């Protein structure tokens, strides 16, 4: 194993405990399979591996803890399969519930921070520009690379915790500056200012971007003054679920793209880049793909993928304006937001209006939505929920803005204001 | 060079196995595409839907990368429903990590070898994969 230094080789041989040895061997094997010449130190990790898919993942986590494995860098946890805060009810059978709980506890026992959120970057985990890190979960990876400018590949199950314990990652892919340059320019400056100022654009733009660019790296021009952090979060999440996007640049907004030329690696590279000018008609095609249901039936509403920020929770509360929903409205968020809501007494008020707060998990990764059977329709403002809900929950989907979601939840049927797309 | 001449493939993860060949005609995502409890292909859009990967020499023309593919493969190994061997055109580290972890857990793991598409298409109905990477008719 010439990939490893002497020190790393000693760890892999079990010199610092069997758990640390197992973690180092897994990272080294991943590096060999990816063709990485060496390992590099990392500053932090975000771990997606604590979501229960079956007993073997729990047994792996417990083998690490039994071997004394501890995270060696600050590490946050993505969602699990249970809501440990008790805000919402998860309908898992007893055996799965027990194994999911054991898995979550094992990751906490290794020293991971119990953040249980897919928006760790809004719960205080924000590595500096240019830092190498090992993050999992597709939206978190896209945000970390694109908006924070830290460097990570898509670290999947098992490799994420192995990197966190060994404080190492294979040196390849997006850790290398030359692999982070844009080769495609996406010009959206022809879209109306009203559309660019509307939150409903960003999941749709992200869906189009993911479908069109796949794993190519693009730089978007024309969003200066429009792209807030929550909008970039929605764009990246939709792009990552539609097309495996791990990094995108926004000219004048994201840290590696003061302008399009810099994002491409120079004026000549910019001239060579493919250029796509996006128009409203093309985007309306992506908009249509997000909804799979027809008619005005709505059985439940889900928002918060990625998890709602406190700002987004404020917006939900403002739009509800004291009214009661006639359909269940699930608001998925992290316990960092729940704490803030509880401190101000707003959680109880929201629940009294018919909102179910879902913390530590979300409605497409574990059974929370009511089992209505054939024909059930979920409304959402999330491109990611729209992508995964049909396969994972059996619900057909209607996509709309947050305001549309709230109005539909109150009315008990689909209400959608399409003016921004005209 | 065909398998009937005694082909030797590049070893990605070592081991030995024998089984009936299941050569997929389209790439597959293990997560959402293969049932981790049974090994049945469940992706509604996949041409080999309804086939079972358990105990087969599985030839993959490509994988679609969900980062939970490794979890599905680990679960298949744990449930005794893993393929007898995996042949792939390019190493997919996310999928193969499931075998790396299974080996760390002390569970018996199938070998994984690199094999180009033309060689996959020319495989006989049943093959044996040797510890040296030799793929021979069985």
Name of the CATH class of the largest domain in chain A: Alpha Beta
CATH superfamily of chain B: Phosphohistidine domain
Task: State the share of residues found in helices of chain A, binned by percent.
Answer: 40-55%
- Average pLDDT, all residues of chain A: 96
- Work out the radius of gyration of chain A: 22 Å
Query: What's the count of strands of chain A?
Result: 14
Low-confidence stretches of chain A: none
Given as residue ranges, the uncertain stretches of chain B (5+ residues, pLDDT < 50) are: none
CATH architectural type of the largest domain in chain A: 2-Layer Sandwich
Report strand order across the widest sheet of chain B: 1-8-7-3-4-5-6-2
InterPro entries (chain B): PMDh-S-like_dom (IPR002840)
Protein name (chain B): DUF126 domain-containing protein
Keywords (chain B): Lyase
Domain Phosphomevalonate dehydratase small subunit-like (chain B): 28-102
Summary of the model, kept short:
By secondary structure, chain A is of the alpha/beta class.
Description:
Chain A is α/β, with parallel strands linked by helices and 422 residues long. Chain A folds into 3 domains: 6-178, Aconitase, domain 3 (2-Layer Sandwich); 181-288; 291-413, Aconitase, domain 3 (2-Layer Sandwich). Chain A contains 17 helices and 14 strands. In chain A, strands 12-11-10-13-14 form a 5-stranded parallel sheet, with helices on both faces. A 4-stranded parallel sheet of chain A has the order 8-7-6-9. In chain A, strands 3-2-4 form a 3-stranded parallel sheet. In chain A, α1 (6-12) crosses α2 (18-34), α3 runs parallel beside α4 and α8 (201-213) packs parallel to α9. Chain A starts with 5 loop residues before the first helix and ends in an 11-residue tail after the last helix. The model of chain A has no long low-confidence stretch (mean pLDDT 96). Helix content of chain B is 20%, strand content 23%. The relative contact order of chain B is 0.28. With 138 residues, chain B is of the alpha/beta class. The longest helix of chain B is centred in the C-terminal third of the chain and has 12 residues, at 93-104. Chain B starts with 6 loop residues before the first strand and ends with a strand. Chain B has a single domain, classed as 3-Layer(bba) Sandwich (Glucose Oxidase, domain 1). The mean pLDDT of chain B is 91. In chain B, strands 1-8-7-3-4-5-6-2 form an 8-stranded mixed sheet. Chain B has 3 helices and 8 strands, in the order ββββαβαβαββ. Chain A binds chain B through residues 22, 25-26, 29-30, 33-34, 48-49, 53-57, 59-60, 63, 136-138, 154-159, 244, 391, and chain B through 12, 31-32, 36-37, 65-72, 74-75, 77-79, 91, 93-94, 96-98, 100-102, 104-105.
């Amino acid at each position: 194993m010439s990939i490893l230094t002497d020190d790393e080789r000693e760890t892999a041989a079990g010199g610092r405990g069997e758990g640390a040895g197992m973690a180092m061997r897994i990272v080294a094997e991943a590096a060999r399979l990816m063709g990485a010449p060496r390992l590099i130190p990392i500053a932090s990790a975000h771990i997606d591996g604590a979501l229960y898919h079956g007993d073997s993942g729990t047994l792996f986590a417990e083998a690490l803890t039994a071997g004394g494995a501890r995270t060696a860098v600050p590490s946050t946890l993505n969602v699990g399969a249970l809501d440990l805060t008790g805000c919402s009810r998860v309908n898992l059978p007893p055996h799965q519930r027990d194994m999911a709980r054991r898995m979550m506890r094992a990751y906490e026992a290794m020293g991971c921070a119990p953040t249980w959120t897919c928006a760790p970057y809004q719960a205080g985990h924000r590595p500096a520009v240019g830092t190498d890190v090992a993050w999992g979960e597709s939206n978190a990876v896209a945000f970390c690379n694109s908006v924070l400018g830290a460097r990570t590949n898509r670290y999947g199950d098992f490799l994420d915790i192995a990197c966190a314990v060994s404080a190492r990652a294979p040196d390849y892919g997006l850790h290398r500056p030359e692999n982070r340059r844009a080769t495609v320019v996406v010009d959206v400056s022809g879209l109306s200012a009203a559309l660019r100022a509307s939150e409903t654009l960003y999941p749709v733009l992200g869906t189009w971007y993911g479908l069109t660019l796949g794993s190519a790296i693009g730089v978007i021009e024309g969003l200066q003054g429009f792209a807030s952090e929550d909008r970039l979060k929605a764009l990246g999440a939709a792009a990552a679920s539609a097309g495996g996007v791990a990094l995108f640049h926004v000219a004048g907004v994201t840290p590696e793209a003061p302008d399009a030329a810099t994002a491409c690696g120079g004026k000549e590279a910019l001239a060579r880049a493919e250029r796509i000018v996006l128009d409203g008609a093309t985007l309306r095609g992506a908009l249509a793909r997000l909804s799979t249901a027809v008619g005005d039936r709505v059985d439940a509403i889900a928002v918060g993928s990625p998890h709602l920020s406190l700002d987004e929770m404020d917006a939900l509360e403002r739009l509800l304006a004291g009214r009661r929903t006639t359909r269940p409205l699930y608001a998925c968020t992290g316990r960092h937001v729940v704490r803030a809501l509880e401190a101000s007494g707003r959680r109880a008020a929201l629940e009294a209006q018919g909102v179910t707060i879902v913390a530590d998990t979300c409605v497409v990764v574990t059974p929370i939505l009511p089992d209505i059977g054939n024909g059930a329709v979920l409304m959402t403002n999330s491109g990611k929920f729209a992508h995964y809900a049909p396969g994972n929950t059996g619900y057909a989907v209607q996509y709309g803005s947050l305001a549309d979601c709230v109005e539909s939840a109150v009315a008990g049927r689909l209400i959608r204001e399409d003016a921004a797309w005209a | 060079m065909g398998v009937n001449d005694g082909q030797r493939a590049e070893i990605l993860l070592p081991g030995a196995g024998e089984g009936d060949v299941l050569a997929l005609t389209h790439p597959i995502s293990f997560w959402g595409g293969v049932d981790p409890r049974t090994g049945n292909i469940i992706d509604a859009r996949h041409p080999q839907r309804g086939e079972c990967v358990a105990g087969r020499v599985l030839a993959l023309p490509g994988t679609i990368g969900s980062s939970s593919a490794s979890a599905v493969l680990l679960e298949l190994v744990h449930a005794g429903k893993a393929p007898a061997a995996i042949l792939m055109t390019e190493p997919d580290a996310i999928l193969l990590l499931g075998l790396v972890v299974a080996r760390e857990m002390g569970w018996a793991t199938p070998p994984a070898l690199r094999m180009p598409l033309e060689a996959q298409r020319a495989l006989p109905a049943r093959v044996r994969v040797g510890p040296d990477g030799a793929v021979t008719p069985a």
